[in-house]
Amino acid sequence: MLEKNYLWRIYWRLAGVIMVCVVVALAVVSYFSHHVFDQELVPETEQKAATVGASVRALVLKATSYGIDFSQLYGVEQTFAEVFEENPEFAYMAITNTDGNVLYTRGTEPIGARTHFRNAVVLQMAHETSEISKAARVGQQYIVSVPINDNGKPLGILHVGIDAAFVDHVLLEVLLDVVVVLVVSLFFTLELLNFMAGARLASGLGEFARQVDRMRAGDFTATARVRANDEIGRLLRRIDSAIDHLNVRYEFLAGELQDKLRTATGARREALKPAQQAFETLSKRFRFGAAPEAADLDEMNLNRIRAPLFAFILAEELTRSYLPSYVNQLLVTIPGISPQVVIGLPIMLFMLIVALGQPYLGSWSERVGRRRAMLVGAIMATVGFAGTALAYNLYDLILWRSLCALGYAMVFVAAQGYVLDRTGQQNRAQGFALFIGAIMVATVCGPSIGGILADNIGYRASFGVSALMALVSILAINRLPTVEIRTAAMKPTRGPRMREIMALLVNRRFMTLTGLAAMPAKIILTGVCFYLVPLYIVSIGNTSAMAGRMLMVYAVMMVLIVPLSASLSDATMRRDRYVSVGLIISGLSGLLLLLSESFLVLFGVVFLLGLGQALSIAAQSALVAEHCQDEIRIYGNDAVYGVYRLLERLGNALGPLIASLLVIVWGYQGAFVAISALVLFCGIAFTVATHGSDWQPAAVAQ
Amino acid sequence: MGTIRVRFIIVALVVSFFAVGMAAFLNYFKYKSTISSIVRSRVLVIGRNIENSVQASLSVGMQFMEIGTMNALLARERAADRLIQGIDVFDHTGQVIYSTERARVGEKVPNVWTDAAARSKTTEWGTEGADEYVAGISLKNNFDLTVGYLALRYSSEEVERAAKAAGREILLASIFSFLGIALVAPLALIVVIRRFERDLRALEAAASRLEDRNDASLPAGSAFDTAIGNLRSSLRDANSSLDDLRARLDTAG
To answer: Considering the domain B3-164 in this protein, what is its CATH number?
Structure first.
């Protein structure tokens, strides 16, 4: 049989080759960019040094005009220090007298500086009366020299040293973004391989494998499928053709036997008995004729959901790293509400609309059709993104973001329904892996690229890019099959009823899982990742791109750890332990800021948070099925999971609200610490609550 | 060339285009923002000189609206750097109080200036217009109260010229890098997917002879050998059963 990971091994090899090519190309672009930066930035910085030098010279001349001796000036080094503070590219400043002896100096003196100062050409400068400056490379610095001349009387020369490595520092910042581009390219490669070749390959090879299984089981029924005109399509056509030949033979022989039996009597009928027995045995062992349509698992169409979903989710994820900063820019005073809460308001509202809308939009998308619901949602979101890009102030921004939220909820629910409609018991997990995979890749790529875009082209244009991505998703949704395959036999989904919500809210087991695990996990996710990280990073003088990189660390952790933790927690059947450990690690993350405010510590916070969430996220929902069997029996699976998801998503909405209130009281760092402490407390409480024997793994769940 | 191979090559080209394009975009915008900030900070050096003079006047009790030497100071500082096109000092309503151009005194500055000054969290602010950029400083008195705003107008030409030149070079480097990838990547991909293509060819060859009764001539050693074997044995079984039926029908006459 086909090896399960055959295609993935090929993908990774291809991705490896593509990545090597991309790295080489990026290195070439970076090398030439360095050359350009060196060529253009150094002269520009030399001019700036000359202007700064002229300003310092004016101060010196002002002092000497009051009669202070040029060699006895006070506070010159202090002035140099202030210049360094405002101009980090300057590494050294000195004033020499007309003999080239250093009178005042500050910073790192380059090797050979003293010799340079005594150079005759340089010393000659002191006698210049015009506004002139000269630059020369001395050691690891470019030295810009400005004459100090008091109405024709030469006093000395001011030297400003520019660190030659400052171009490297500038490019180092670009390099971090280039690394982000590389990571995004890797995920983008895998996504594109899947979209442009893999979806068809996977479904083709899957179809081939199923065909082999069917034939082994004696099923030679013919499918009337249109095959693609590629290698796999041709292969499947040949198998179809072989099956058709068998069916023709079978029908011919069956017809001949029937004819003979109809006309035969007596001894002749007896002679036909062995043939009749052989036909009966054949009919028992093998199945011929046309394949029933229900057997068609529609895998090709299932795969087609991935591209529109990825494009749509990417549009929203692009905004994660800079949305709070953009809101901050459009802030208007709302009486009685703190600005911190107002900044979190659009995120809160977004999450709330998604949380409350999803249970009811599911049945709506069933009625109108998944494709149509996705189209409506994507159009709404596109308008929402465009409106956000053009927002006048906070009030209309909230309106546009609400539209985005509604669109997001519609597309999310309809896409989920699309997968459910096209999967059966045997391939539902595979369908959802595809669904979650598209979302996770968008989560890795979106915030980092969004941050880079926001830094370079501005917030509004970046929202324009999101609108464009949402528009691309509309085109991709439009390519989805127009025929819905929902059958009458499928049970309609419904939102949870109020009495079910109330009953589950007071259920101890259910609330232990939801209130102590699922909700705190979401509160810390949205509170820290969507609200605190973007705002805190910008508040300490960093960029949205850095916020994006941080959020990418979180997403990469999720992509790498979730599959591992999911399989391990399933294998050990101690999902509660994974949830406990995950919550405690998440809870410890923000406490790191008690140690230091440094940027590396913030990286550690996001890393630990990603690790903690990745450990617990997969096990959490599985625990509901494991430990709430009584509740599922009474209220049904849909209701229990509906309430669970609703409360979990309300946690999403609460996150920014709680974080913003904590910022008002304790500032950013205090908010990180407090929200983490809350989750740590919940983690410990969950561990204690699930310690008893009634929380041992249930046999049924196995 | 197989359609699957073509698709893989297209993926490589699309990803490379994205990566190289993003790198070029990042380098260009980083260059532009760096050069902008260098030029702005150069202009602000002159602004700080004016700010110091204004604060010195205010600290000796002079009224902000009545600093007699201000226009001369502005004219002198403007001459210090050829980049500067003009210097204005305006109040919180946006009305110009002092300027290097007399005609501007009493005029209102564009709203974007006052908005940018009000929005800035430090004393420095700036805006970028089509033809000229503005670097500004909020002027404060000894009690840290903003008494007015200093705006230094400078030509965008310097930044635009430098950005254009750098942009051209970065673009050229990116195009050549992309062309390099476009040549190398397909060759590298062909090497890597050879095994996969061989497997597919073996599968196709086997599929073309699915109904042959003889196994000997079939290629072996591909990842699909077991699947092909199963497929053929299933077909053989079915055909044997149909042959048996045929034989019995023939025997019956």
So the answer is: 3.30.450.20
